[in-house]
Amino acid sequence: MTDVTDDTVLIETDGCTGLITLNRPQALNALTHPMVLRIGEALTAWEDDPAVCQVLLRGAGERGLCAGGDIRAIHADAKAGTTGSLDFWRDEYRLNARIARYPKPYVALMDGIVMGGGVGLSAHGGVRVVTERSRVAMPETGIGFVPDVGGTYLLSRAPGELGTHLALTGTAVGAGDALLCGLADHYLPSGWLEEFTWELAKAPVAEVLPKFHGATVPEAPLAADREWIDHCYAADTVEEIHKRLLESGLAAAREASQLLHAKSPTSLKVTLAALRRARELDSLERVLEQEYRVSAAALSTPDLVEGIRAQVIDKDRRPRWSPAALFQVRQASVDRHFAPLGEDRELTFPPSGAGRG
Fold this sequence. Notes:
The protein has 357 residues and is α/β, with parallel strands linked by helices. The protein is 45% helix and 11% strand.
């Protein structure tokens, strides 16, 4: 059991709704291991409670739902050569899968910043609400990591190659593009969320949503970029993607190539391989099993420690990747991320589990 005095996640009921509030606003509600366990306990308690008809996830503060996992803790773990992060990821990925198949409506308010682990807590839910303030991203390649928490499942199933573009560049998208890419279902202005939450206390979400219509959904800028994105990112290698972006002659494509240039070369190659493999896997659970292998391998790579140092610890924004160039990344280094961990170390789910279609 988790510590009941821990207030980093607030668990309560309001009418027929179970409320989960991520409560670390000073850290943009970054997710810790105890928070994951606490959310899991709440879902267990509510699953068979007839008084609870649905679950609502939200974030404390005005800045966002959740900026991701507590990467300072992951940095310390990787630097020390310990494996606490593996225990965190195991429980986090199990929670992601549980959210996807939860038997009651799971409503996520994806207001403000929703990144990394925040996507895992929200985008697998049955009712995903974005606002004009939403900024949704899987930015892992910028810290020497690879999209996880089912991110490669979601992005590999986005229209065309939009998900490949978002995964490799780490670009944050607004409400319109989140809807386009299948990361969200509904748009509500942020000013409506308080009343929306109040209405959920009184009625099931299927009855409440029709009352909140008429808002103009923000544009989806990526829709206009589909032609060059689909062409460039359909390439089989990151090198070829980079080449096509540069040769396209489009300013937006050149900007994307510059973003790729700043990312970890190893992370880029592993991410592309993970996305392509995820497309062939038949459920979220199978993808999460793959992601666990990838994350475990990444924990022992120099780029994860260096990326977090540059972006979060020292904030000099000048990571020294190793190797420093795409052509220096050997295929064996990529393949290592997908190698079996050994029966006693794998993350496994029952064969019958299924994620979002």
